[in-house]
UniProtKB/TrEMBL annotation:
EC number(s) stated in the UniProt entry for this protein: 1.1.99.3
Protein family per UniProt: Belongs to the GMC oxidoreductase family.
Glucose-methanol-choline oxidoreductase N-terminal domain location: 216-331
Protein name per Swiss-Prot or TrEMBL: Gluconate 2-dehydrogenase alpha chain
Region described as Disordered: spans on this chain: 158-178
Pfam families named among the record's database cross-references: GMC_oxred_C, GMC_oxred_N
Native organism: Salinicoccus halitifaciens
Amino acid sequence: MVEVLDKVDVVTVGVGWTGGIVASELAKAGYNVVGLERGRHQKQEDFLQTKDELRFDSRYDLLQNLSKETLTFRNNPDMTALPMREYGAFHLGTGLGGAGVHWSGVTWRFLPYDFEIRSQTIDRYGEEKIPEDMTLQDWGITYDELEPYYDKFEKTAGISGEENPFGGPRSNPYPTPPMKDTAALRLFRDTTEEMGYQPFMAPSANLSEQYTNPDGQTINQCQFCSFCSRYGCDFGAKSDPINTVIPTAEETGNYELRTSANVTEIIHEDGEVTGVRYVDLNTGREYEQPAETVALTSYVLNNVRLLLQSGLGQPYDPEEETGVIGKNYCYQVEFSGRAFFDKQYNMHMGAGALGMAIDDFNGDNFDHSDLDFLHGGWISLRQGGRTPISSNPVPSGTPGFGREFKEQSIYNFYRMLSVGTQGASLPNRYNYLDLDPTYTDEFGNPLLRMTFDFHEQDRNLATFLAERIENILEEMGGQDISVNKELGNFDVEPYQSTHNTGGVIIGDDPETSAVNSYLQMWDHDNLFVIGASAFAHNGGYNPTGTVGALAYRATEGMIEFLDNGGGQLVTAKNKSKLT
């Protein structure tokens, strides 16, 4: 029997960066907020002296258990989707703080071009530049409108960085200075400068100095221990939800956190959401949590799945090109090249976001008139810290085991450098998310089905960026250079990034988008769907900075909604669509 609990002002489904931001801002405004997180409770102290590569990097301690819940995958609608049984392309976080605990800390702002990508592309190159099956659209919000929220997120997280010469205008500098450079980063910087590019230190949530944010939360200085990606930070030097926004919410006295609370349904009636239903994973008991407003703040894939599972919004149909839920799922074009050097570089030490970057080939920062693709990506040499189990770089032709392999591994551990890129992923009509008709999770609910493949746009972009990487490695003086210039079909193996986006996309038209610029559902005023699921495409950057900015804007809209007793939030862009 379902137990119905007392009604609250706001319930959030998932407590990572977005759930924490919503909780902290709404609780500070005096609203009662309940946060439901299906993973375990965890705090910074839980990671003390846990620099265990086997536990976190090989056995995925901070990731979702795929034996209980996974997704199914296929490249196109003619294929039968099968469950993803082991981790590869992306890593789905679990536990309090979500992927915000095990992330690397790279924190970009998207370019002004990204938010008006369709309009700006047509203005500069003509509509024929956009391929027929590329469902490219503007976001319904501009960079200038989002900039104050970027600034707020960066101040909350204490981001360390220096100004991107190609970036949009900033109202303030980064709150902390850029991280220290290294010999390897200086080699990349000097080489790219000589090549005529404009290198700069990448923005980082691994902080260059101790910092206290506007909410009074202190983040410590990075120690360059190299245990960032897939790990929780035992120094408290990587900004994450459990050392920033979650404690801020708890300190208000208006926030209640419930872990091991797995939401299975968003309850709604007559165009209004009334609450959520969830299962306590410790006891098996089922509860209904009524709320004035629901914020769906789980990971991208779960945001989409819960909407589809709850019958909210119209599912996307690629054949009819109708519906919006599941539309414009995007990933990323990510790969790297490597080279060996005579000089030793201390690559064992590092931090998840420590890197030197160039942005000369991102967005529309370069002329695409004679190119057969749109957008681009940032190129960098990153020093995330090289761990011994997963990193054994050896020159080509070396056996994969035995004495020679061991000797080459030891000799080259400090002599290999890698230059990589993250290229934009632009939407395609046949890349989308829906519910699988065959496979279910441990509760009997259908798994999410991912239909995704790389297309000509992605392959042409990949080849272009790979050639730039090869040129840089050659100019750096590298030997035995290896760069894969061919992008085959997408597969869920090997790992690329956890930069999944789309499915509940933002816009100024209910016909082509699921949420408005406050991430409020068009057809259910009191439901806000917050996260990278709102991205209408994926840019040439890591998504977290944009996720944080959109979350802060959404909380502003939620407060306005609650203060005014409801209604669709109106902006200059969507006003005509609502009248």
